[in-house]
Amino acid sequence: MKKYLNISEIARITNKERSTVFRWVKAGKLGHVHKVGNEYQVPLAGFERWWSVNVQGTDGGKGEA
Questions:
Q1: Count of the separate structural domains present in the chain
Q2: Digits of tens for pLDDT over the chain (65 positions)?
Q3: CA-to-CA dists, residue 57 to 16, 27, 49, 54, 61, angstroms
Q4: pTM of this prediction?
């Protein structure tokens, strides 16, 4: 199983633009993020934690954040 998601994967999952996800990363909303080369790697556990609190808990999982 994959341990990290990149910005494009999170954008696809949340139905948001990559620029929005990038702002979340820069604001620290997705926890500690690793930058490897030109790519950000968001730990899957951190994303799932953020998703459960900010998305599923507020709008029924429609992807609004």
A1: 1
A2: 779 999 999 999 999 999 999 999 999 998 889 999 999 999 999 899 988 988 766 555 555 55
A3: 18, 20, 11, 6, 7
A4: 0.78
